[in-house]
Amino acid sequence: MEKLDAYKMNGLGNEFLIIDRRAKNININKEKIVELSRINKLRFDQLIFIDKDFNKVTPIVIFNSDGDEVTACGNGARCIAYLLGKERGEKTVFLKTIERDLTAEITDDLIVKINMGQPKFDWDKIPLSKNIDHKNINIKIEGYEFNEGFALNVGNPHIVFFVKDCFKNNLKDIGPKIENYELFPEKSNVTFAQVNNKNNIIVNVWERGAGLTKACGTAACATTVASYLKGLTNNKVNIKFEQGILNVEFNEEKNIFMTGPVSQIEKIKLNL
Q1: pLDDT tens digits for 20-66?
Q2: How far apart are CA 173 and CA 132, in angstroms?
Q3: Per CATH, is 137-254 categorized as 3.40.50.1010?
Q4: Model's pTM, two decimal places?
């Protein structure tokens, strides 16, 4: 059995297993990812590989705990940026996912700000299975009915429902039903958002391929964009999760900036 250096980090309780394969090519199949995610001391929402730099840009490859590869993970990208920044003694880190380029900045001790790029609203870019109004999606499924959902892509697909109480519905039950709803050919992340005022939102998130998570960076980004475009909040919003807050700005250039804390870096030995 091979022993491999790896890292554990989290962003507001959003857990990551990080494997550096810049010096050695390492691949883990879907079944092994699922197996690793179920080990208590390793338990993670996403597994992230760090690949070899190209022109000072570091590619990262992201897998959900169900073993499926995904296109974005905002909190995971912030954690990787912090790890690499500390390693290099640099404040700014450039990352690349299979979907977009990201620029992150360490602004304070254990605080990372990242430019998540621009959201996509075209139905086939979100994607949806048909051309409908992405700002007003109604879903009826197995006795549940949710109205005026806002679908968008912020590196991965999301749907956001604005409700009076974001914890009223059992997201463990309804989350996977909406995630796999026929309207979402690539499945979708699901957020129930409770607007407290123009600057503050509480969210409850079901993450595609990972389930209930304590925090989700791209959900925070999607919620901020949706709430602003619906006229519910300002363009700068504090998104509250179970273990803390992410500050998100949707600026005039239509870029999304997300700032928040990351954990200390825990180096571990991984048995493969």
Answers
A1: 999 999 999 999 999 999 998 899 999 999 999 999 999 999 999 99
A2: 26
A3: no
A4: 0.96
